[in-house]
Amino acid sequence: MDTLRAIAAFTHSVELGSLSAAARALGTTQPTVSKLVMQLEQGLGVRLLRRNAAGLSPTEEGQRFYERTRRMLEDYDEAVADAREGIQKPKGLLRVSAPVTMGQRHLNAMALEFLDRHPDIELELLLDDHFVDPLEARIDVSLRLGGALPQHLVARHVGTWPRVLVASPAYVATRGMPATPEDLLTHDYLRYASGDDGLLLDGPEGLVTVPVKSRYRVNNAVALFDSVIGGAGISLQPTWMVAESLASEQLVRVLPTYTGPVQEAHLLYAPRRHQPLRVRVLVDYLSERIAQLPRGAS
């Protein structure tokens, strides 16, 4: 039995939740991964995984073993990367997570450009508005927009964007253009579902809080954006989201001398002493490209 390969098969199976997913990550077949895990269990004399119709999960013994094998494989990867430093090209599988809208509008194109530059790299882009812990899900790099930054991860700042009030020309033609923040109280204000009532703006007179109420909330940024484009109301959006629509006059600025709280972006990844070359190259690339997203809006 190739013990290291069997340990890798087991560890990936736990992290990815299935033997087939582990096989894809390891570049092999599902029967091969199943055989490796079975040989590992036989060699240890304990059952490591529970298999059922819903998938698989580690047994109590398997969970304890996994905690050790995960760290062991990380140390092994670092040792290999250290030995090959300076002679290797970036290659292998990268798993990247990002919020849905940023992924659809910008990161997808960046990922394809990155693959063109690095033909020996494979990339999985996982789009999810819920935060995914890179260590738990075996994600190499996670893009985080706003929110608290986990203390157990490295957080590299890659962007800051103001938020601006926008509406469609049709909405403004029907309902009029607000002249002051207080005028927003008589308009339809659209917001993300998890947000609180009230709107904080920074303008010529400093900070002002407007107690707006929202009749419509939605937990998807694309749906919120489409609602604004469709004339449903006014919304506060980051400039990376609306710059093109403002330039094409699909949207117009509302109260252009006011902005909302900025949106911060960070790349999150594991705090390893020696990151694999493919991860370092990706982080550098995304840092450069994300920083180029529009920060201003006319």
Count of helical stretches: 10
End-to-end Cα distance, whole Å, is: 64 Å
Q: What is the CATH architecture term of the largest domain?
A: 3-Layer(aba) Sandwich
Ranges where pLDDT stays below 50 over 5 or more residues in a row are none
Query: How many independent structural domains?
Result: 3
* Share of residues in helices: 40-55%
DSSP strand count: 13
Overall form: elongated
Structural class category:
alpha/beta
Overall pLDDT score: 89
Q: Regarding CATH, which class of the largest domain? A: Alpha Beta
Radius of gyration using CA atoms only: 24 Å
Q: And the CATH topology of the largest domain?
A: D-Maltodextrin-Binding Protein, domain 2
Strand content: 25-35%
Largest sheet: 9 strands, mixed
Write the element-wise H/E pattern from the N-terminal end onward: HHHEEHEHEHEEHEEEEHEHEEH
Structure description:
Strand 3, helix 5 and strand 4 form a beta-alpha-beta unit. The strands form three sheets. Strands 3, 4, 5, 6, 7, 10, 11, 12 and 13 form a nine-stranded mixed β-sheet that branches. Helix content is 41%, strand content 25%. 30% of the residues are buried. The protein folds into three domains: 82 residues, Winged helix-like DNA-binding domain superfamily/Winged helix DNA-binding domain (Arc Repressor Mutant, subunit A), CATH 1.10.10.10; 94 residues, Periplasmic binding protein-like II (D-Maltodextrin-Binding Protein, domain 2, 3-Layer(aba) Sandwich), CATH 3.40.190; 103 residues, D-Maltodextrin-Binding Protein, domain 2. It starts with a helix and ends in an 8-residue tail after the last helix. It is elongated, with a radius of gyration of 24 Å. It is an alpha/beta fold. The protein is built from ten helices and 13 strands.
